[in-house]
Amino acid sequence: MSVSDSASLPYAPKEMGRVSLSRTFILYTLGLFAVLGIVFIAILTKITWDASHARAIRVTEAFFQATKRPFERAIWTVNADATLQLIRGLESLEVVERVWVETPDTGNFGEPVEGIRRSEALSYTLNSPSAILHKDAIGQVFILIDRSTISREIVSTVGYIVAAIIVYLLLLAVVIRAVFRRLIGRPLSTIVGYLSTPRLIEAPPDAQLMPGRADEIGILASSLQSMVQRRHFDLQKIQEYQTNLEDLVAHRTEQLKLVQEELIQADNLAALGALVAGVSHELNTPLGNALMAATTIKDATDYLRTELDEQRLSKETLESEVQRITDTANIIEKTLGRARELVGNFRQVAVDRQSEKMRSFNFDHIVRETLATLQPTLKKTAFKVELDLDADEVIESYPGAVSQLVSNLVENAMKHAYEGRSEGVIKLCSKVRPFIANDGCDGNTKKIVFTCKDYGVGIPEKNLKKVFEPFFTTKFGKGGSGLGMAICYQLVTEALKGSISVSSKVGSGTEFVIELPVKVQLHNKSTTREMVH
């Protein structure tokens, strides 16, 4: 993909027309004006309604006051015709819907209404004309204002206003659109067209984008054109770097692999050197005992020879010295047997670690041999290794890789698991499990599950995913190389064709689970050498 492809626009020209800035601006502006217009019309309608309703009440009250005395005389004289004529006179008003009179003695005149409409009617009290000073009530007049008339008046008034607002908004939209397109829309379209130029970064146009324009859009266009020119120069430099970048990366990668292999080999040799020192120290005890026993035998034989030469040797002395020589010989035999066992274990482990050959071996036996070579180191600490080996399976694989795996796991637990603690337990377990398909093995029916568990400080969640990364360690500057777990992962996955996983909880310990096939598929020699180192 070229650089210009990455600068292509996300919209086609037709799509850009539907989402143009001027269209959006007009829609937002008109929408805002429409909302404000609706609010204005609502307020205006409420004010107009209140004013019209108040005016209707004033007109009605004025007419009623003019007919109040005739109403009182008609009711007082029980003149139904005059009362009904007065009621029809009030109902003839445009704003009056219905009028009726209620009296306590002569009944009602007109057609009264009930329910909520009754509570909306205006009520006036009629007094006796003969005792007007005493305010003797002879009836009550109810006048119901005609709301439909007021509504028609309001609709008519507000309708003209709404029509005027709509015309105003349309004219405003036309004017705003014209001004916006002139000042902003067309310049932005020019900038968009410039950005959509094919191969803009590879071959930018030389002509100035907006000559003579010094406002914000002119500054934006000038800055954009300068940025494109800088990108053009940067692209030329990148293309120059790309011509030899692959060779440089390949060379650096090869150097890094060599450094990593050297570090891994140095780590392995250091571990083997520590193993030699430990075994040498362990051999001192049986060899020293054997030497002391040999000196005892020499002293006994010298004493017998002296007694024999002087003819003072008795049967009791002979039997005593012979018994002492026999006991000493037994001691020599046991101590040299122990030395032979240590040397044998060390030789087998050392040969396996340096060998690339696959052979058949008992898995649990290799684990025990490896721990035997680690005993000198373990004796110097308060850590204990508990074994629960239940595999007892003869497998065909690389014993050196298994031995190195066990050593790295135990040493890693000793260095990291019990930091800040004076003692701890490392538990090694092995079991045989049925083979599951797609394990990457050929013809296997079983696999070995080997676990190394400690009960130490645990690994934080953020570090769990980095445990098997090369050079990752929390002990830099304190003896940690960061290669122990990386070597374990490499040995398990590539040399032994198995899998390794880790689970941990801070404060509760860590457990490594290794699953190994009973028979490893043989690969080419160079691959095997790289894995076992």
What would you say this structure looks like, in words?
By secondary structure, the protein is α+β, with helices and mostly antiparallel strands. The chain has 13 helices and eleven strands. The protein has helices spanning 3-6, 13-18, 21-76, 80-91, 116-120, 147-195, 216-309, 315-354, 363-379, 399-417, 461-464, 484-495, 525-532; strands at residues 96-103, 107-110, 122-127, 137-145, 359-362, 383-389, 394-397, 424-434, 446-454, 499-505, 509-517. Strands 6-8-9-11-10 form a five-stranded mixed beta sheet. α3 (21-76) packs antiparallel against α4 (80-91), α7 (216-309) packs antiparallel against α8 (315-354) and α8 packs across α9 (363-379). The chain is elongated. The relative contact order is 0.06. GO terms for molecular function: phosphorelay sensor kinase activity. Pfam families: HATPase_c, HisKA.
